[in-house]
Input
Amino acid sequence: MSSVPLALPIADVRAFFPAFSEPSLDGWGFFENAGGSYTARHVLDRLYSFYTGTKVQPYSAYPASIDGGAAMDMAYTRLALALNVEPDAIHFGPSTSANSYVLANAFDQLFQPGDTIIVTDQDHEANSGAWRKLADMGITIREWQVDPVSGNLDPSRLDTLLDESVRLVAFPHCSNIVGEINPVAEICATLKAANIVSVVDGVSYAPHGLPDVKALGADIYLFSAYKTYGPHQGIMVVRPDLARQLPNQGHFFNADLIRKRLTPAGPDHAQIAACTGIADYLEALAALSPDANQPNPFRRAETLIHQQEQALLAPLMDYLGARRNLRVIGPLDGTKRAPTISIALDEPGLEAAKRLAKHKIMASGGHFYAWRLLKALGLNPEAGVLRLSFVHYTCPEEIERLIKALDAEI
Output
């Protein structure tokens, strides 16, 4: 299994992450990346630089303040390049959950009673609960439901829910339980043709390669920096003309500043600046395996991450497919999913994770804020599932050790 062909040199990738040199983590396989990734050195360097050299109020008249503002501005510019959007589309908030609540409040002021919002039961509660609360304001909420066995979110089921009252559809790029990658571009194209706003939760997809949001066609795309090798910030991409159309959620005197319209409380300055390091890291990753046919480093990084993870995922999915006594949520075909695998057991998922820890496997169990999804799948959210999640810096030896631990304990 250690001979699995990889797209990236694993030792060079792991050298970008100080966690792999931390003695207390030595020998541990990290399989809880869906809860938050390790932080890239590029991010930590920028965070340290801001806190030590420019930890002042930014955008003032003196050098440290000017430099601090410039460091923050760079994050908007660099992330916009990585996501193929304009800098005015980038918004920072304390978390994706908080960003979703702000968005829902803004749309509530824009929509009228009788307008319809469609949500799914596949989502993390962050991209579901905030919209559902608008039912109290007279908004009609419809649920796009998953298949109760596979957890698949079928686009044809969405078609039956659409009518002239639908103003917005919120759905995930990838479920944090099911793992299946939804056809976002196809769905967004259908919604755009009907003049319906698309809100895509990319939190569980973005760690596996920041996407080309313009190509996806999403009006709003949400993800979390702490799951994409960065600090604890929520990042949302909002189509600029839509952001200007939404009622201002910030201070009234900032209504003309697009960055502040959807962020009622100023996010941490240092963490905004540090998010430039996410783009730095992706460029460094692309440079490990250059390709003249794909000169854009961010699209190259996305491709390399996908290829790397597919190579790592294949033996694990082969093993799980052969374990007929296990209910694996989502497709067993690794090409259709991200490397976030949930297993339904006859015991709480956390209990199984405790046994895996004896083999130095870091995993977890629970409902992972996808309470409605587990109910739809006929599972007890209180017991939850065992979730195993990894990213491109995982090595083949860790996959092999995980399989041995599953064989011994599950």
About this structure: The chain has a mean pLDDT of 96. DSSP finds 16 helices and 13 strands in the chain. The longest strand covers residues 166-172. The radius of gyration is 21 Å.
